[in-house]
């Protein structure tokens, strides 16, 4: 009997505290639950909801590991801030375009891209641009916050790349900086400078710059993506691009930002719509006030 008691005491001394065992089991379950959530879930939006509610939130730039496709392949999507607070740069870790960029300033221009159409279906998205390895999304001014938009944007990007369909359904136009036989020496130098020195820097910020012409010493450029509505775009043109152009090309007198006719029409129609909505809101307020006064009498 005494020998049995000694054996029991020896065994009890070598058994870890049950509290530590319980904690270890909980940690294992927690880690297993996090792993299986990423590997088993078939719903992109469900996974994004879980990620946005996770305690492991990361500051910008963010890097999220999420499943892509039915076979739960892993996709890393990195989010980078741009100089424009209303634009974010999403880097999916795969090739987006073979070369160049594709800009979609409104939903009407996105007819040739399934991914751009899906992104424009998200309330609050006003612009989309594709680069060789990134996607820039622009939202409305202060009407909706990025934490609200990000889950839907992540889901749209993941679902698209899992579908294996082309990102553009039509051929891209020729590059604006391709040197033509009709270009004079100054225009050729401007295009080469844009392509080799200026455009790569602008694309790092989630934007792009398009050459629209050169006349009487003035270089006309169009800003796209994050740069199109950036508050510091004028400073970028004058202090950065114009100074560099004048340094390398003496014939350049100034650099100006221009907009396409389609962009100007869209802007005009949008302003008309805002005025109309304001008038409707004002008339509704007047009717509400008059009805309240009648009831008071």
From TrEMBL:
GO terms for cellular component: mitochondrion. InterPro entries: FSCA_dom_sf, Nfu/NifU_N, Nfu/NifU_N_sf, NIF_FeS_clus_asmbl_NifU_C. It is found in: Mitochondrion. Residues 77-164 form the Scaffold protein Nfu/NifU N-terminal domain. Keywords: Iron, Iron-sulfur, Metal-binding, Mitochondrion, Transit peptide. Pfam families: Nfu_N (PF08712), NifU (PF01106). Signal peptide: none annotated. The keyword Transmembrane helix does not apply. One of its GO terms (molecular function) is iron ion binding. GO terms for biological process: iron-sulfur cluster assembly. Transmembrane segments: none annotated. Belongs to the NifU family. This is NFU1 iron-sulfur cluster scaffold homolog, mitochondrial. It comes from Desmophyllum pertusum.
């Amino acid at each position: 009997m005494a020998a049995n008691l000694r054996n029991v005491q020896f065994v009890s001394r070598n058994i870890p505290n049950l509290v530590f065992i319980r904690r270890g089991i909980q940690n294992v379950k927690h880690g297993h639950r996090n792993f299986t959530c990423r590997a088993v879930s078939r719903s992109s939006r469900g996974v994004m909801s879980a990620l946005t509610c996770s305690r492991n939130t990361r500051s910008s730039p963010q890097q999220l590991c999420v499943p892509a496709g039915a076979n739960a392949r892993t996709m890393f999507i990195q989010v980078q801030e741009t100089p424009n607070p209303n634009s974010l740069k999403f880097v999916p870790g795969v090739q987006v375009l073979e070369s160049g960029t594709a800009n979609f300033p409104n939903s009407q221009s996105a007819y040739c891209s399934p991914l751009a159409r899906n992104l424009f279906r998200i309330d609050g998205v006003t612009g989309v641009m594709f680069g060789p390895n990134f996607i820039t999304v622009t939202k409305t001014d202060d009407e909706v916050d990025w934490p609200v938009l990000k889950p839907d944007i992540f889901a749209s990007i993941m679902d698209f790349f899992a579908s294996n369909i082309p990102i553009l359904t039509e051929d891209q136009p020729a590059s604006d900086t391709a040197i033509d036989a009709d270009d004079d020496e100054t225009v050729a130098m401007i295009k080469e400078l844009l392509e080799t020195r200026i455009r790569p820097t602008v694309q790092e910020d989630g934007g792009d710059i398009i050459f629209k012409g050169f006349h009487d010493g003035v270089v006309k450029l169009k800003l796209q993506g994050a740069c199109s509505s950036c508050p510091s775009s004028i400073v970028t043109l004058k202090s950065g691009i114009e100074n560099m152009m004048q340094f390398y090309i003496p014939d350049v007198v100034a650099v100006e930002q221009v907009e396409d006719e389609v962009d100007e029409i869209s802007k005009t129609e949008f302003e008309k719509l805002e005025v109309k909505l304001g008038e409707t809101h004002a008339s509704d307020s007047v009717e509400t006030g008059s009805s309240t006064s009648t009831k008071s009498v």
